[in-house]
Amino acid sequence: MSREEVREGLKQCWPLAREQQIYFGTSSWRYAGWKGVVYNRDYPNEKAFAAKCLEEYAEVFPSVGVDFTFYSFPTAASMRRMADQTPEFFKFGLKVTEELTVWKYPTHQRYGTRRGTLNEAFLDPAVFVDRFLPGIEPLGPRLGPLMFEFGSLPVGVWRDGDFLERLDRFLGELPAGYAYAVEIRNRDLLGRPYFDVLRRHSVAHVFNGWTRMPPIGIQAQDENVLTTDIVVARALLRPGRTYADAVKQFEPYEAITDPWPRRRRDLVNLMGRAIAGEMAAYLYVNNRAEGNAPATIAETLRLWLREGAGE
To answer: Which parts of the chain sit beneath pLDDT 70?
Structure first.
């Protein structure tokens, strides 16, 4: 797909959002490799690009998956700057800060003195209400799904049902009025007990393409998987491929270099189910999926239109 073809294909994004509530977006947005497709303005330097490119991004895409809120609590100032660069109909899908979803802090140096320690704030609704929600208030109607990403949990944490019990209590104490979604990375948790917890609280399952999870299409085969009135998906990695390997293979993310049509087919199927069920869908694509997220979205929309589903 040439750059011109990608640009042309992406013209379907906003009409789909306005007419069908299908919100395509990417995971993060500050990628210089997208210049010439998503970004065509003349930015004086990289600092200016990072600060202002969201405005141009929002002319192409109706939504974006925000990753940086996973690593630190959002501030009202940062959310206000983001909101000011986007139209009111735009939607931000935010990852909730890992302080709520990490059972035990990894040993990475960035965790400092917390490395390797149990997280006392794990699934603490008070922390979510007091420290996360105030920062996102400036987004107002632009707020899309709030996604709780749980990394791969040790067998001892989830096998006896303790995790699902704690998740059940946690979701039951969250304030109403938000679109919540849960992303798990233990394939053995996919099943009726997990989906029942989500359904009880009208929370969505995040269809996530990750290294140790079944493909999105396999996840979608479970008859219990649609647990509320929205669909959320994150096309991240191919099964078996690590994040580090994907970064090494795909940077600087200028084009698709490892096509995977099956992933696009899975996204098209989710689109169809959402439209048939009159549900909003938030479909986020990562550069690490095929090498260039905008091109993956354009190819997905081409498939959608080729099959006549967009008519």
So the answer is: 308-311
